[in-house]
Amino acid sequence: MRPMGRDQSIFSELCPKSLSRMGRWLAFLFAAAALLAAQVFAQAPTSSFVRANGPQLVTPGGRPLLLKGINLGNWLEPEGYMFLFEHGPQSTTEIEALIEELAGPEAAARFWKEWRENYITRDDIEFIRRAGMNSVRIPLHYKFFLNSDEGFPLLDRVIAWCREAHIWVVLDLHCAPGGQTGTNIDDSVGYPWLYKSPEAQRQTITVWKRLAEHYRNEPTVLGYDLLNEPIPHFPALQPLKRELDPLYRRISSAIREVDPNHVVILGGAVWDTDFSVFSAPFDKNVMYTFHKYWMTPDQASVQEYVDFRTRYHVPVWLGESGENTDDWVRQFAALLEKNNIGWCFWPYKKMERSSALVSIVKPAHWDEIVAFGQLERGTGNAEKRIAARPSADDVEQAFSELLQNIRFAKCRVNEGYLKALGMRVP
After folding, report:
1. What does the alpha-carbon distance between residue 25 and residue 31 come to, in Å, rounded to a whole number?
2. What are phi and psi of 134, to 5 degrees?
3. How far, in Å, CA of 147 to CA of 217, rounded?
4. What pTM did the predictor assign?
5. Interatomic CA distance for residues 414 and 313, integer angstroms
6. How do the pLDDT tens digits run along the chain, 426 residues long?
7. I need a labelling partner for 182 at 20 to 30 A (CA). Which of 10, 43, 47, 287 fits?
């Protein structure tokens, strides 16, 4: 047997000199195997979850992950403009009130149940996969998760389809208790009471803790986007900025009590654009998100977020953009990828307009529904509104057709939008 060189010292420590040559050889093999196993173990991923690793996300296998996704907006938090209600009801509650006024409480309840069952189906997720996207962001309304369990079966089903399709899921609290913006997008009452109401904050923490407990062992869920677009640009609301970071810390702490696995995602103030509210990261597994609409898609529009990533060595992600021409979308998506910033454009589906992956065909008599929705609201105007109501048959046909038209098979695929994002047209 040839000399063993520097390995002899290891061997000598492991085995007494009185051992036979065969015994020594076996002991050496055992030590070498143990050393190799330790090296392999050290290199193996320590998590089954996507995680933040310096300025990027990495997969459970440790590979860099650049997100390319779409927002499933209007499913659990309907917004007026996606129904063509530009000058009518805007918030979820206002839209629900209009439909109940026209169809009656029982029919309205059935409508929304079927809406939530069929707006996002396996066909939709499969289409997103075939288009080449790797992620979705799901906007949530707190009411389905606070004093109700209705939201969990709906989410579980979509997450299962995403798991099959190898699509990552971000959960986004779009409508928080009390409202984080005071506008229609969070279904608030006209002021962001979340920052001033201890009860609204308690409820928000309860919602996130329930979500985290439910999905803490689900690797398909990438992370938790704590508050969508907090604190608008309105001058009277700027003092609320100081409340945002402490609230994020409280929510994150509650999540970490039950879930150490998922990425916590923090959006800036002023519709997710203002990162000046942040100091050094308070969580080791955190990503920061910004939203950008209707600006020139040049380096200056993203440089502050690139600088923030460099300063704090954390991932940044474009959680929303779009609602623009295909050419603008093409330029902005290319700019983001040039800067190694993952993206999630808005939205996946809406009525008629082509600035989405797919469009819902407008049902018969929908213009009459829109016109009625533009009338002055309130019970003080009941006589005028009752006189102007579309016929019961037209209302029934419009809502019945809408529930059919939201199904993927009935939707129109917008090839220009897909190509602008660099995706395939299935």
Report:
1. 10
2. -120, 5
3. 23
4. 0.89
5. 37
6. 333 333 333 323 333 334 344 445 444 444 444 433 333 333 333 479 999 999 999 999 999 999 999 999 999 999 999 999 989 999 999 999 999 999 999 999 999 999 999 999 999 999 999 999 999 999 999 999 999 999 999 999 999 999 999 999 999 999 999 999 999 999 999 999 999 999 999 999 999 999 999 999 999 999 999 999 999 999 999 999 999 999 999 999 999 999 999 999 999 999 999 999 999 999 999 999 999 999 999 999 999 999 999 999 999 999 999 999 999 999 999 999 999 999 999 999 999 999 999 999 999 999 999 999 999 999 999 999 999 999 999 999 999 999 999 999 999 999 999 999 999 998
7. 287
Handedness of CA 165, 167, 172, 174 (dihedral sign): negative
| DSSP one-letter string for 178-226 | T-SSSSGGGT-SSS-GGGT-HHHHHHHHHHHHHHHHHHTT-TTEEEEE-
Retrieve residue 210's tokens. Answer: 């329930």
Angle at which helix 366-373 crosses helix 92-103, to 10 degrees, equals 120
- Sign of dihedral through CA atoms 50, 51, 57, 60? negative
Number of DSSP helices (H) and strands (E) in the chain, helices first: 15, 14
Q: How many CB atoms lie within 10 A of CB 190?
A: 10
Six-digit token string for 268: 């800036």
Beta bridge partners of 136: 70, 169
| Cβ-Cβ contacts under 8 Å for 112 (sequence gap 6 or more) | 96, 99
Cα angle at 395 between 394 and 401, to 5 degrees? 85
Sign of CA dihedral 110, 116, 117, 123: positive
Q: Residue 246 contacts by C-beta under 8 Å, 6 or more apart in sequence?
A: none
Structural domain 51-75+119-361+411-420, CATH architecture: Alpha-Beta Barrel (3.20)
Q: Distances in Å between the alpha carbon of 400 and those of 112, 142, 406?
A: 11, 27, 10
- Residue 340 burial (CB count, 10 A): 14
What is the rounded CA–CA span in Å between residue 45 and residue 62?
Answer: 6
